[in-house]
Every structure is written in C-alpha cells, then in structure tokens.
Design goal:
- With about 190 residues, the chain is mainly β.
- The chain folds into two domains: about 1-75 and about 80-90, 3 Solenoid (Pectate Lyase C-like), CATH 2.160.20.80; about 100-180, Pectate Lyase C-like (3 Solenoid).
- It is built from no helices and eleven strands.
- The strands form two sheets. It has a seven-stranded parallel sheet with strand order 2-4-6-8-9-10-11, with no helix packed on it. Strands 1-3-5-7 form a four-stranded parallel sheet, with no helix packed on it.
- It is elongated, with a radius of gyration of 17 Å.
Length: about 190
C-alpha cells in the first residue's frame, strides 16, 4: 500500500493505469480521468480534484475525508459505498447526475452550482447545509433530513413535506411549487 503526500497529478489517465491502492494525503488531481475506475479501499485525506472526470468510479470502502471537488464530472457515483468514518466532501461547479447519496450524512456543508439530476438522497442527512444554485431535476428525496437547510437559490426540486424533515429549512417563493408537486395543482 502506497503512502503519497502533497503530490500533484496533472492530466493523468487512470482509465488505462489504475491509481495505486493506498493513502493520499493533501494531494491534488488536475484534469485527470478516473472514469469507470476502481477507487475502492483508497484513502483520500484533504485532497483536491479539479476538472477531473470521475464518472462511474467504484467507491467501495473509499475514504473521502475533507476532499474538495471543483468543476468535476461525477456522474453515476455511489457515495453510500464509501467508508462512513470521517466522510466529508466539498463540491463546487460539478455534475453529479445519477449519483446516489443513500443514507449519507452531509450536515453543515455548502454546495455551490451543482447538477444533481436524478440523484438519490433517500434517508440522507443534509441538515444545516447550504445549496447555492443547485439543480435538483428529478432528484429523489424520501425520509431525507433537510432541517435548517438553505435551498433559497436552488431549483427544480420536488420535496414532499410529509415524507421529509424540512423544519426551519429555507426555500424561495419561486421554489415553493417544488414543495406542492404531490397535489398536482397549478400555481401561477
């Protein structure tokens, strides 16, 4: 098992040569392609991914501790298979469409300009988080904790207040229709 510290990986294609199993501490990955790669059992501690393609990567028992993703393509990722211990991700300007956050705890987090199309947030804890300019088209919220979350600038969400915890959450007047979808009413 490798131990790699403070190294920058620039434009590496990990689809043909897999990232070595081990622990990566304070490393930066720039414009790397991890699509369809297996990142299982790898530990990422305080790492940064910029302009990377991580679509469909396997994350079985992967540790993501204080990891930052910016301008990344992360389609179809299953975060629920990650190691829960210390799980903490920061996301900005990323496409996470078709990804799953089933039962994931992401409290007190800030998410900026993200595409969450058809994502699954079933039973996840998003309380006290801020969702700034996030697109939730066809995302699933079921028994999700959104208490005190701020979704005022987000859009395209459909959240049933009877099936989710939304006490003291913040929504914009424009997004109120997303809380009433189940009634199939027309709001003008």
């Amino acid at each position: 098992m490798a131990y790699v510290e403070e190294k920058t990986f620039n434009k590496v294609d990990f689809t043909s040569k897999a990232l070595e199993k081990g622990e990566y501490d304070n490393c930066t990955f720039k414009e790397c392609d991890f699509s369809n790669s297996d990142l299982s059992d790898i530990k990422f501690l305080e790492c940064r991914f910029d302009n990377c393609n991580l679509s469909m990567t396997k994350l079985i028992n992967t540790s993501l501790c204080d990891v930052r993703f910016k301008n990344c393509k992360m389609i179809g990722m299953h975060f629920e298979t990650c190691n829960e211990f210390g799980f903490s991700i920061h996301l900005e300007d990323c496409n996470l469409s078709l990804s799953s956050f089933y039962k994931i705890k992401m409290k007190k987090n800030t998410f900026k300009n993200l595409k969450f199309h058809e994502c699954d947030f079933t039973e996840s804890d998003l309380s006290l988080s801020v969702f700034d300019q996030c697109d939730f088209a066809k995302a699933t919220f079921d028994n999700t904790n959104l208490e005190k979350a701020d979704m005022q600038t987000s859009f395209n969400y459909s959240i049933d207040p009877d099936k989710n915890r939304i006490k003291k959450a913040k929504f914009s007047l424009n997004g109120i229709a997303g809380l009433l979808d189940k009634y199939d009413i027309e709001i003008n």
